[in-house]
Amino acid sequence: MGLDLSGNAPHRRLQESVAADMLRVDGLIRERMASEHAPRIPEVTAHLVDAGGKRLRPMLTLAAARLCGYEGEHHIRLAATVEFIHTATLLHDDVVDESERRRGRPTANLLWDNKSSVLVGDYLFSRSFQLMVETGSLHVLDILANAAATIAEGEVLQLTAARNLATDEDVYLRVIRGKTAALFAAATEVGGVIAGARQGVVRGLRHYGDALGISFQIVDDLLDYGGVSQTIGKNVGDDFRERKLTLPVIKAVHRADKKERAFWERVIERGEQHDGDLEEALEILNRHGTLEETRTEALNWADRARAALGDVPAHALRDILADIADYVVARVN
Amino acid sequence: MGLDLSGNAPHRRLQESVAADMLRVDGLIRERMASEHAPRIPEVTAHLVDAGGKRLRPMLTLAAARLCGYEGEHHIRLAATVEFIHTATLLHDDVVDESERRRGRPTANLLWDNKSSVLVGDYLFSRSFQLMVETGSLHVLDILANAAATIAEGEVLQLTAARNLATDEDVYLRVIRGKTAALFAAATEVGGVIAGARQGVVRGLRHYGDALGISFQIVDDLLDYGGVSQTIGKNVGDDFRERKLTLPVIKAVHRADKKERAFWERVIERGEQHDGDLEEALEILNRHGTLEETRTEALNWADRARAALGDVPAHALRDILADIADYVVARVN
Known about the structure:
Two copies of one chain form a homodimer.
Chain A lengths: L9 H8 L1 H14 L7 H11 L5 H12 L6 H23 L4 E2 L2 E2 L1 H4 L2 H21 L3 H24 L7 H26 L4 H25 L14 H4 L5 H8 L3 H12 L7 H11 L2 H19 L7 H15 L3
Antiparallel strand pairs in A: 1-2
């Protein structure tokens, strides 16, 4: 489900535009993930960091600060902060989801144990907190503290919404706004704040990050059912097996006839899943056109992200951010 | 292993001295542990909060601020912050230790699941972070961010030091300074800082909290082997079963003859434990007098805590804090 990094894609252009800053962010991440006394910490962290995520969130912070004309040093710390928070949540997510693979590697909870993932996640979260304190900006601290609470709340909500067929689209939106969009929104917002951008610009950056994050997560959830192509790839079906209520299923449950309802109750509520059930689920989703509808929603959120940039100053980086919105949904086009 | 709350004990006097403030702290804790959308959060939190801990850490913050003449409002927020951090670490500790009982009740990981404990812990940690941002003091934020990192580092160090007979007293001190003393030290220090106390006073408060926390944890670890009375009570032997290297064992391993060494290798390193092994361990600890020596170390740290208060202004609360130091070790007298 990785983004295509080849050619002249927006992600590549974003990487090139913030490459010098990003080198410094990587250096800071390496420096701060160290622990003099507990070598387990950098071992676990490096396993995840070296696997190389897309680094989309820290790049958003750097781009937001730069396009607002920032010339200082704190955007480097904030980008590292955002990546540390992201890494900490991945470690805890993999414990919660009992995942075995992440970024093409076995997860830390599998290679070490759940204990290490919980505690190293806590350590990275604390480190992120130290980094943001170093910026000396209470406004930035406020934004990131609120984002952290929203992320955790979204994760707990997801936990209680799973396996519950009563989960509706409002709850779904709240879950993904928490677990995904809150950090995207904070990442772009703090870039503007640290640059001293005026309120309207900061708001535009925040709305951009929020809509981009929502679009990103809807696409992820759609790809978990193979996208609209109905091809069952190797990563397809994780959400189904974990009995998560994501948008394509929520829409299908809403329109289920008696027989379909019984199917969803069996596989999602009771968790009695057999061979052929994923194929059956895909057939139902397709019958009601909910994969296509989900794709349309992702496109709508990408449009909103683009539109939010109307409040942001004209800049080459603004154009790249606009293209990033299209790029995120291009995975399902 | 609870503190005796009866009679005119120092803990009771401390409670009475900060009772009005503490009521407000409790109110703030109830208010902030709420979550509009994820009811699982207050359920899990209330399970732990209602069980009623000693609330020693938030009381220390209140007392430190008051004895420095503080008349503002922020000490209430800081006391709630400290209790939230403590509660978050308890939730994660119980997952890591696979504990089944806490404060006389089944643990949250047992009643709900590990997932809820991890995520609700993250939520409480974020909430603590929001509360401290509200004080507007970057100095306080710096202290608490550092404490959070030290706590997590101590926990990871404990994880890797467990089952390893090479663990020495330096490593042990580092572990308990992290997992226990760091929050005690931050609790008293931020009380002084928010009150605007001068540097020497703040340093004295910090050293007091550090030494008190170390003493407190050494006593806990000693009581886990029944104290010096060698009585095997119902809570005795948890650390032994979890193969943790605590001070009485570290001292005994250091002086082990060949046969004793083989015993420790079997029960701690390889974890092959049978009926009678705990009794055998106690006999060895007693033979080398390491329970008595551990008690002496706890008393020494309590003395250091008391001495650190020499830098703190004369005040009825200062005298109570001094008695709290004796009180913490009185559990093994």
